[in-house]
Amino acid sequence: MENDIVSALENGELQLYVQPKVDMRDGRVIGGEALVRWKHPEKGLVPPREFIPVLEKNGFIINVDEYIWEKVFAYLGKLHREDRMLVPVSINVSRLHAYDEKLAETLTIEITESIQLQGNDNFMDIFNCWRDAGIEISIDDFGTGYSTMNMLKNQTLDEIKIDREFIRDLEKDKSRIIIRNTIAMLQQLGVHIVIEGVETEEQKSFLLGCGCTDAQGFLFHRPMP
User: How far apart are CA 139 and CA 94, in angstroms?
Assistant: First the structure.
């Protein structure tokens, strides 16, 4: 896989996919998340869970990050030239890239909840640098890793993406209590909330009842080229 990734980058085997973010009230697309898919010439579609950890380990993830960012910029430029509707597209940032101050030249940055816990005292400085440059900060997979309570208390965040695991067991009373109060807390903190993994009408109805309107999930759109 390490050997193949070089030719994959050169031959365009890594492709940009986007999963829309929608307003659940009317299905309107309000944004998107850029994702990478690897169409291997012999193995077919290789799932991200198989190749992303390898790339993070050997450092090639930096090349893949930049490759996908360029694809995003080119896509948004194309829409702009064609005078088509533009919505924010968030890009995921690998752990290796997260401490690079040059990132304050891009767009919405989406980082996982655990990325701050690397023992790097400069992280908050870089975080503030991004925001000062006008980059919106989205915390991905909220609720699955270590707590971000200190960040919520001390930093201004633009968006929290609540992980799909939070809404898998909505038939359980405890799950409903947790998600309802989590949404209420984040709303009181003035953070924009996006729910990941919405797949059923029951989930949609419950979340709308909690006052949460924005989501990603197969109920609305799968990731698409």
Answer: 13
Q: How far apart are CA 160 and CA 197, in angstroms?
A: 14
- C-alpha–C-alpha distance, residues 126 and 103, integer Å: 9
CA torsion sign for 66, 68, 69, 70 is: positive
Task: Tell me how many degrees the CA angle 139-28-143 measures, rounded to the nearest 5.
Answer: 20
Q: What is the DSSP letter of 143?
A: T
Residue 172, token pair as written in the block? 């359980």
CA distance 162 to 196: 6
The reported pLDDT for the residue numbered 5 is 81
Any idea of the CA torsion for 148, 149, 154, 157, to the nearest 10 degrees?
50
Q: Which of 117, 110, 104 is nearest to 137 (CA)?
A: 110
68-72, 95-99, 140-144, 168-172: segment of lowest average pLDDT: 95-99
Mean pLDDT of 114-143: 69
Q: What is the mean pLDDT of residues 204-215?
A: 96
- Do 164 and 197 contact (CB within 8 A), yes or no? yes
pTM: predicted TM-score of the whole model, two decimal places: 0.82
Alpha-carbon 80 to chain mean position: 23
Give me the mean pLDDT over the 101-105 stretch. Answer: 57
| DSSP 3-state of 61 | helix
